[in-house]
Structure formats: structure tokens, C-alpha cells
Amino acid sequence: MADPRTIARQAVDALGGRANITDVENCITRLRVTVGSLDRVDESGLRAIDGVLGVVMDDTVQIVLGPGLVNEVADAMAAQAGADGIRPGSPERTDAAGLHARGEQIRGARKRRNQTPVKAFLRRIANIFLPLIPALIACGIIAGLNGVLTNFVTRGWAPWAAPVTPVLAAVASGFMTLIAVFVGMNAAKEFGGTPILGGAVAAIIPFAGVAKVTIAGEKLAPGQGGVIGALLAAILAAYLERWARRWAPRSLSMLVVPTFVVLVAGVLTIFPLMTLSGWLAQGIGDLANGLLQHGGALAGLVLAGLFLPLVMLGLHQALIPIHTTLIEQAGYTVLLPILAMAGAGQVGAAIALYVRLKHNAGIRSTIRSALPAGFLGVGEPLIYGVTLPLGRPFITACVGGAFGGMFVGLLNQLGTTVGSTAIGPSGWALFPLTNGSRGIGAAIAVYAGGLLVGYVVGFLATYFFGLSKAELRRLNDEGMDAESERTSAERV
Q: Where are the transmembrane segments (predicted)?
């Protein structure tokens, strides 16, 4: 098992040394490292580190490690990046070097195309919500457990749980009640303001007292606008703060700037922003639900089929505000289980390649190491290490995911809504978070059915159409040649 400290030490060296690292953060699966110069980063060296599942070069260097390990490596790297005595490691290169090299070329071209203002803005929005994912997952699982116990109590199967369910409900709901505050703090920080001021302005949204405010004859509702309103309010506060600091006298800035920011941004939040963001949030909910109710199968096909390219670009995190809004409204997001089908298609495609390339030990070794993460919803190792460099298997993987999404979308259209009570995990890791209109049991069954469809279609599409006869022969011949060379070297 890979040692977090060893991974951190080798990663610091491959990232250009401690002097090149300016910030280290992590989400549920990825380590996100801000570096001074991307030119000093040894991407191949990062990929070769034992325990690293994939690398995405963007405005930050994203190192895919998987759940659990990423937290330990983040802590170790944060310590080692500022420590003396870090020496270059000597990680062993992985197999299937040709595929890795091709994947690196694709990532390099994608990185150059990806530096646009719109995509940079979306990444900033994603950075606001990433730190919230662990709490969202924890509260989602607790909410699911509480739902099961509540159902047992209602049916008389577990009377002992009656006093337990209110406690679990409070634990699960407390964070979601005040999520606007945390969004506000993170948004203010991301846009150059003071986090506590962003939180103070965003706290107006869940405040019960806004129910006494009347606009155009209608009273505001606490929580109106949700995380979208909090996001807009905090961004406004950050810009107002930066502007105020330019003109406020230095001797009075401690008093003038915070008061000005909270007062002006707070009033603007109460009047236009809560109303406008409330309309926007309601529109998102109506659109998502209407899309699946009236065109569920087609919608699922398109959404799941296009999600892998979004993951490839590293922009899938920009969907977090939409998922969070749906969770606020209904208790779960109906989009995440459908999008998770993209990973199922990827797994099916990888298994088909494993079967077809029986003489290519390098590619088969890469697939074996990446499949466990793929089953748990971490798709980058299979994308960048296997399917994308080969070309056509990436498309057949998307086809598998599309059919899995179509299955889940069709069941939504027929009345069995399937959603996730939190965001972050997918694959098998999403099972504890599933819920829907007909209860947890039905939701789990539909989600499992979608995964199975994605696996099977991804496998069949890749097995029969993923590789041309010439390419299949070439890859197997290369594998046999490599094995022959290795055997000869061992004899010598």
C-alpha cells in the first residue's frame, strides 16, 4: 500500500520542488496544487508515482489519488512543501508507456485550449463548493440513515428508534440550514474579499426575520434564493470591499469598510438578489424535474453520454451549485445518478479492452490498477490511462454511459425518481446516498440497474467496435514483443 509521506515527497519533487508550490488543497478524490510555474512540473514523474491514479494539468495541477488517501497526502505535502531536505525520488515508470505518452499529449493540447475566461470563471465557482463536499456527503448519509429508521418506526418495526430519529434529523439538517453562510465565506475569499464579511451578508438569506420584509406586496421567505443567492451576495460584497478599500481613509478603514460592505451588500441582497435568485433557483428545479418527467429517457441519454468529456476537461465540478440547489429544494439531486452512469460505461469499456488485449500485459496491468477506482466512480485513471489515448474506446465508453443514463431517465419518466442526497461520490460509492420518490429501496434498485446497463453496453460497444482489426492486431503484437524482450532480458 502506498505510503502518503512517500507520495508527498515524490510529488513535491515532481512539482518543481517546495519553492514552486504556493498552495495545496484537496477535494474528495483530487489533490489540487497551485504552482508558481507549470513549466517546472514533471507531469510524467507525477503519473509514475505509486498511488497516483491520474494527473490533470490545468491552472492548478490536479493529482487524482482517490478518497481517503488524498486527505493524508494533502496533509503530508503541506508539511513537506515547507520543509528542508526533500530529495528527488526515483519512481518506477508504469507500463503501457505509449498510451501514457499519447494521453499526455492530449492533456497538453486540452490545457492550451482550456484557458478561456468562461472556463476560468467556472473553475472559480467550483473552488467555492469543493471544500463543502465532505460535509455534504456526511449529512447526506446521515439523512439516508434517518430516513430508513423513520420508515421502520412508522411501520412499527423499530420502536426503539423513535427518540433517535429527531437527533439524526438535527445532525443531518443543521449544515444544510446554514449552507448559505459557508458558501458566502468561500465565495468572498475566492473573489478577493474577507470571508467573514461574505458570510455575514449571505447569512441574511436563511435569517427568519426576512419574513417580515415585504416587496411588491409579497413577503420574502427565509432561505429564498438559497446557495445561488448566497453566491451572488458574497461576490457583490467582495467587489464592494475591494472598491471601498481604495477610497476609505486608512485610519478609519477598520470601521468604515466592513460597515459599508455589510450595509450596502445586505440591502441589495434583501431586495433584488433574493427575489431574482429565488426565481433562478426555482427555474433550475423546474427545468431539471420537467426534463426528466417529459423527456427522461432522451435527457438521460444525452446528459450521461456527454458527461465524460466534461470530466476530461475538469469542468464537471461547475455543476455543484446546481446539484446543491436541487438538494436544498427536494432533499436530493436527480441529475447526479444519471451523470454517474458515464463512469459505468467507462468501466465496461475497460473490461472489454482487458478481454480483447489478452497479449498486451502493459495495458492490462494499467486496467487492473485503475478498475477499483473506476467502480468507485473515479474515472480519470481509465480516461487518461486507457480509453482516451486509444481514441475509439473513449467514444464507446460514452455510449455505454449514455444507455445507463437512458435507463435511469426512463424510470424517472415513469414515476420512480432517483436522486442523491449529497454530491461527490459516484459509482458504487453513491449507493448509501440514493433516495427518491418511492423510497430508498426503489432508488437503489433503479440506480443498480442503470450501472448494470452501463457496464454491459460499454463492454459490448467496446468489444465489437472499440478497436479496428488492424489496431487490435497491432496492440496484441506489441504486447507479445514486449513480453519477448522482457523474457530475453531476464535470461541474460
A: 128-148, 160-184, 196-215, 221-240, 252-276, 296-320, 332-355, 367-387, 440-465
Out of 94-108, 278-292, 306-320, the most confident range is: 278-292
Euclidean distance between the first and the last CA atom of the chain, given in angstroms as a whole number:
31
Say how far apart CA 390 and CA 216 lie, in whole Å: 59
Are the C-beta atoms of residues 410 and 297 closer than 8 Å to each other?
A: yes
Residue 172 pairs with which residues in a beta bridge? none
C-alpha cell at 471: 489496431
Return the closest-CA partner of residue 313 out of 383, 366, 364, 377: 383
Rounded distance between C-alpha atoms, residue 386 and residue 352, angstroms: 12
With a CB cutoff of 8 Å and minimum separation 6, the contacts of 433 are: 137, 140, 141, 144, 420, 421, 422, 425
Residue of 379, 385, 368, 312 whose CA lies nearest to 346: 379
The three cell numbers locating residue 56:
490533470
Q: Which H/E stretch holds residue 364?
A: helix 361-375
pTM over 0.90: no
Closest to 35 in 3D by CA, of 54, 51, 13: 13
In which band, very low, low, confident or very high, does the pLDDT at 396 lie, cut at 50, 70 and 90? very high
Range in 55-69, 165-179, 326-340 with the lowest mean pLDDT: 55-69
Cell of 304: 450521461
Residue with cell 438569506: 205
Percentage of the chain lying above the pLDDT 90 cut: 28
389, 438 Cβ separation under 8 angstroms: no
Identify the helix (H) or strand (E) that includes residue 217: none
Q: How many whole angstroms separate alpha carbon 165 and alpha carbon 411?
A: 30
Residues 6+ apart with CB under 8 A from 126: 315, 317, 318, 320
- The neighbouring-strand residues paired with 33 are 24, 61
Grid look-up 445518478 returns: 337
Task: State the catalytic residues.
Answer: 27
Answer whether 265's CB lies under 8 Å from 272's CB. Answer: no
